[in-house]
Design a protein that fits this description.
The protein is mostly helical and 92 residues long. The chain has one domain. Helices cover 79% and strands 0% of the residues. It contains three helices and no strands. Helix 2 packs across helix 3. The longest helix is centred in the C-terminal third of the chain and has 31 residues.
Length: 92
């Protein structure tokens, strides 16, 4: 009886851990949704500089893209440093 309960507990915890994992499709969908939201935010912000295709608008979009890339680099470095503190990613 105790053995059956133990097996059931292990199976339930294993099933719960699998359901908590995001699939690749979910991760990709989240990335695409974030990109669409960023594009919409950039478009709205840069329309104050002019209509799409104008020099001011294009310069604003390029500036926002480079700012976002710099922030992504900073976020990656922070995550990498955090992993190193915890003992992971020692070979990077």
């Amino acid at each position: 009886m105790i053995r059956n309960l133990l097996i059931l507990a292990v199976l339930v915890s294993f099933g719960a851990s699998l359901s908590a994992c995001a699939s690749r499709e979910e991760i990709e969908a989240g990335r695409v949704a974030k990109q669409v939201a960023n594009d919409a935010e950039d478009d709205t912000s840069c329309r104050a500089e002019g209509e799409p295709g104008t020099q001011g608008y294009e310069a604003c979009r390029a500036n926002r893209t480079s700012q976002r890339a710099r922030q992504a680099d900073i976020d990656y470095q922070k995550a990498r440093d955090f992993d190193r503190v915890l003992g992971g990613l020692d070979d990077l």
